[in-house]
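Reopening closed ticket. The problem is back. First fold of the pair:
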Amino acid sequence: VNGGYLYITIIYNFSVSLSLYALFLFFFATSDLLRPYEPVLKFLTIKSVIFLSFWQGMLLAILERCGVIPNALFIDGHEVGAGTVAAGWQNFITCIEMFFAAIALRYAFTCTVYQEKKDQIPVETEAEVEVEAEVEAEAEVEAEAAEAQGTHAASLSGSICISRSPPQ
């Protein structure tokens, strides 16, 4: 009670809980708009990584304070504090959690969305390329004819813009 860890942890826990509450409100308000993006699994996987690491750290800190996690001795006689042992346990547990989180994230954030976008990119057909070449050739012929006649049409034909809309 004399240290600041307890008070910081209470404030942090309140802050995380308030942010989760705000995210749930946001989700319920926009669930119809977000449905095509399947946000529930994405939300749960990301938040579980953050929330589990926070709560396992809390549990290990409590176990350390209660004396369940003892000091450790190395072979050469150097003593390691209980806090360092608890941090080591937290790192080890986090590594195991990340294996399962990676599997969950693989299903939450699939690559099919990007493959679908790649398939929707319009590809130029040979006919479109031929039409563009013909238009450019006609513009060059007109520019040469205009130069031969001595008019200023050459400067105008150089600024011809060819635009086409992608197929629907």
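Second fold of the pair, where the issue appears:
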Amino acid sequence: MLYIIFRKRNRYYNLMAAEDRKLYGDLNTPETLKVLACLFEHDLDFEFVPINLEANQHREKHFLSMSPFGKLPVLEDPDVTLFEESGRRAYLLESHKQALVANWIDVKDHYFEPPGPALKLISLLSSNKAIDDVGESDGVDHEIAELSQVLDVYEAQLGRFKYLASDKFTVADVLHLPNLHSLMGIASTKKLIDSRPHVSAWCSEILARPSWTKVLQMKKQKMISQA
């Protein structure tokens, strides 16, 4: 099934038609959702081409010709094909001078996500609701403590700025969306976020952005079509 999304053309790419920019990805992967949110934030025209990981479509010859290691998502336009996060990030940042934005992206990469605690908790608690309810497990307790320390740093930073890097919403915030969405759906981790007023306000604000709403609508449409 092919999703084609037409958006208002961005001033940085105003000569590019929707069919000239394609995003190949799986709506079940956080990395695909991050790039979708970025594209929507920038009002970029693009065509979304679903890749089914469970069906091993990322191992098919056509896909490997774009992404030789079988990684997704892949962002393609007439000039470049990008299959690594650093390349997609540079493309979407629009400016190479955003050092503070890059700094908080690195914080996400090194402390919030692997090898950080967020995804570990999402995996542990989503697969074991009993642990989530009781909150007593050596592995979970350790990751809860680790995430608490990370969120304390975020709380201090968000006490200075509305968003992570400044008072302007940036890609540093966008890249947190998939895992924040999952963490807010788990009682134990939602409590950690809600107990920090600045983190809680930031989380509520960015999860309510129209770009993220569009991403969730795409996921919902996929679930309905598979039902």
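Update: turned out to be a display glitch only; the data is intact. The longest helix spans residues 138-158. The two ends are 14 Å apart (CA to CA). Please close again.
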